[in-house]
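Key idea: predict the complex, not the pieces.
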Amino acid sequence: MESTFALSWIDYAIMLIYFAFVIGIGWALKKYMKSATAFLEANRSMPAWVAGLAFISTNLGALEVMGMTGSGLKYGMLTTHFYWIGAIPAMIFLALFMMPFYYGSKARSVPEYLKLRYDEKTRGLNAILFAVMTVLASGISMYALAILTEKLLGWNFHLSLLISAAIVLGYTYLGGLSSAIYNEVLQFFIIVLGLMPIVFLSLKDLGGWTGLHEHLAPLVAAKGYAADTWTTTWRYTGSAGTNPMGVQWYGIFFGLGFVLSFGYWCTNFLIVQRAMSAESKLAARNTPLIGAIPKMFIPFLIIVPGIAALVLMNMPGKGFVLPVNAQGQPIYDYTIIMLLKQYLPAGALGLGITALLASFMSGMAGNVSAFNTVWTYDIYQSYIRPVTGDKAADERHYLNVGRIATVFGVIVSIAAAYLASMFGNIMDFLQTIFSMINAPLFAVIFLGMFWKRTTGHAAFMGLLLGFLVALAHHGLTAPVGADTLVKGGWLGVVLHTYPVEMAQNFWTAIYAWVVATGVTVGLSLVTKRKKSDDELRGLVYSLTPREKDEETVWYKRPATLAVVVAVIAITLTILFW
Amino acid sequence: MGLDIKIPIGLLFTIIGLLLTVYGIATHADSSLYVKSLNINVNIWSGIVMLVFGIVMLVFSKWKISEK
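Result:
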């Protein structure tokens, strides 16, 4: 099967221009990088719209785009649960209730918030887990980029790995967080404009939304589901057996809509860092809401073409074939790239490929810029060299540390990418494990913000036990047909089998969150809080004066934006019920 | 940060937009190229959209400079 596609000079020209701009932005920002604050926190100077687009763009990495299009093929519009229920409520909550504390407390990172609210050990635990997780994530995305370009474009694996690492290092080293954020905004626009043609062309090819619907009906019926399962969201979630995700509505609602999504959007520093870089508290509160507006429409850009791909795969005349892996299974993650190949001529194709490469790199840059901040402030400054008191000298010193951490982060990512190429399963496994810190972290931060009685000891134990329970659950259960220990069951006994992997993930997060919450509440009742009410002002809801927005123009108020976002999300949900 | 992000965005999309539009016009007669895209010249269309977007970004960034 011929799956490598040749690019023409115009495609390479577009790619070169794009990456010249990427490096150019870093270069132009270099002269502003005079302090650690500028390098690691972008001087808290980003306008709300820039921070807002970067906020969702960080999440719109290539693995997300490829994964979601693949999920569109496998699960249809059910995949929108990752957006409308699985992101929007959490983004609204973050904006209205959490951002005032993250931003107002002057914490420079999520681990630092834990230090201010609780104690050193809670911060330390979170900072170390987070640092490992970001470097792993960056390495895995680097590996995915190199393997993709090798397989499909015929580029040399090592060369594309090193070049992409060099580009990322180049612009994050030069311009720090600002450079990462600016490039995320650039990437957001290029991905929207680059993928738009395949949405339009694939739908046109299949006779629009109604045509798609008609083509799907027999295919879906053959799989044993109701004819409109792929084009609806909640309709067939009454029981796990009637939808391809294998999850019931309450699993989606609590697992995805609450635990996973709040854990990811409200406490993952990679995401929250974008809002923390905003120019004012008001801008920081508006950041997630501004990001939420395009976020709600991204499913049409990346999930709908995936659904179209399911139809195309089953129309032999179209010649649409997904590449297969060593076991002969189609690689669903390559759906988007095969769609680019199917519909786009030279020129537009280059734009689409550039958009994908750009999102790989901005994903890495995002991880690296979050890693260097946590490393510099939460690990180096706390345990290796504390501040001396000479502000100017400190700023210079930590700027250099931040720069070295950037180089170090990229080198470790490259190493992680090579480990992934040798022991792919182990790396996937580690990433799954480390992503389990989010659910207990959300429990601990939530309780800390909204219940002043929560104590440091309780938070630490909640975080630790929640994480261990997540591990245990993952080790004792497995999805049907799991062939490797990576997917679960690695503790030797499989106590429960889930119909699909996603259901297992949901329940892992739910158990972790329940245990973390239970442990934190229980221990808080029997231990004594060490911090006084005074020290917790600005960190805990009941001890902090409410935000007053009377002086803000009505359309810039977070409450107004939140209502707009909620109304659009509910409308979309009803339209595709 | 001192750099207005609308300037690089505007420049990038104006340049790529222009390039795609010109390429689309130059290859318009080559119908074999556009069989894939259902005989629609996507290069011209994408190019124009990007060009317009780029110019809008540049115009807004200019206004800001002149106000200051």
